[in-house]
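I had to read the description of the data format several times before I understood it. Each protein is reduced to its one-letter sequence and a matching series of backbone shape codes. The format is easy to grasp once an entry is in front of the reader. For illustration, here is how one protein appears when written out as sequence plus structure tokens:
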Amino acid sequence: MATVGIIANPASGKDIRRLVAYGTVFDNQEKVNIVRRILLGLAAAGVSRVLYMPDYYGIVPRAVEGLSSRDRPPLDLAAADIRLTATQDDSMHAAAAMVEAGARCLVTLGGDGTSRMVAKGCGDVPVLALSTGTNNVFPVMLEGTAAGLAAGVVACGAAGGPDVVRRAKKLTILKNGRPADTALIDAVVLEDSFVGSRAIWDVGQLRQIVLTRGEPHNIGISAIGGQLAPVGPFEPRGLAVACGAPVAAVLAPIAPGVVVPVTYEHYREIAPGEEVPVARTPCILALDGEREVEVRAGEQVSIRLDLDGPAVVDHKAALAAAAASGYFRLPPPAAQNPGRKP
């Protein structure tokens, strides 16, 4: 029985960057609409079972309730067996529970922060991440029906292989030699001593940036790397930028509608397995756009580029592979009234 997990983060697209920047408010009703189309796409692709992350808004149940009895797909739907905390950990725990329950693909609705948490729990199960957050470098902008079809053909075994499912990179945060956390896009060293409102918007606090990827069209801290030395999502390299001493500056869109000059000292390419030491402590590390790790004075911290991040579904390749195999072709309709002339 092909099983797909859906993790729709009700908190994504609502952080403080709506006040300090010009981010779109992605309300939960629109997430309901997207999930509704995902479910219809999954059913059309042959998926029979869907697990979903429970949440205070009831995104997936509302999506089902909004379907007419005629359109309601024949899916076995069940909530993942987790204890809700109304924190970002729910996404991680839901991903782990879905994998344990047999999910073959996960579809997520959120931004880079949601994707980061799902990556902590998904193991080797591939993820198709849809953009409904503020920083959306890791997720893709994709219509829900197409997302359901792509995740469905992967879960049903109609598409796979290295052209369809690819390994993303990640950054491993090492504290005193031990892994402490991970990031998918960027790890940023901030000259600060408390987590506060979590989001980054003051470039004056930047001291170091380590990136798995950065392209000129990105929005967020990774855009800085994209303007200096672009790195693609699957290239086996990363980028480190030192921002301590203002030697030069680059103009970058660090948040929606916020394009500002960012000063830097130097930048360099980093190789897989290479560790970038955090130069000064105490500090705060922001991971994928959110302040997460407090570093005390005297702690030894470094950031390592690794190639064993989450498996990611290429939706275009998945649907192309399914089409090439004839997965969606139907037998000719049975002749009706064969004795009747047209």
